């Protein structure tokens, strides 16, 4: 078994998936993970259209077939009709983790009053954590800075790979062993 953690990165964007513009949000997630993680990890990247069935199928593929311990999505969390990432996430998860969305919105409200329009969430599928992030690279980093300290321990509790972090960049919370 490889010690390399697989982390899924999904950009849900009609225009980026068609090549109308570059997917800078997916790249922002990869860059952030490279900043955070010192342990070996492999991105499993997908840029897909903003369609609920496509998002659901891609989430299932990354968790069930690719074996990602963590899947981070960007896009599709607003109030527009095509913003269906939270619905797709809820449809494929066994249990929801609402604290992630609550903390991300609280953090984003420090920067923009429209953060209340964001519907980010998180949930568990099998032994994987799925986290929905907003679409703007600046917001992605702000939200990940807020919630990532809990992610390695969450993955520990699900018996996933041990994620080691650059503690000068992000300090994960793990309870002290007795």
CATH domain fold name: Molybdenum Cofactor Biosythetic Enzyme, Chain A
Order of helices and strands: EHHEHEHEHEEHH
- Radius of gyration computed on alpha carbons: 15 Å
**Tally of helical segments:** 7
CATH architecture: 3-Layer(aba) Sandwich
The coarse silhouette is globular
What does this structure look like?
This protein is an alpha/beta fold and 178 residues long. It is built from seven helices and six strands, in the order βααβαβαβαββαα. It has helices at residues 14-17, 24-36, 52-65, 85-92, 98-109, 137-147, 151-157; strands spanning 5-12, 41-48, 70-74, 95-96, 122-125, 128-133. A six-stranded mixed β-sheet has the order 2-1-3-6-5-4, sandwiched between helices. A hairpin with a 2-residue loop joins strand 5 and strand 6. The mean pLDDT is 95.
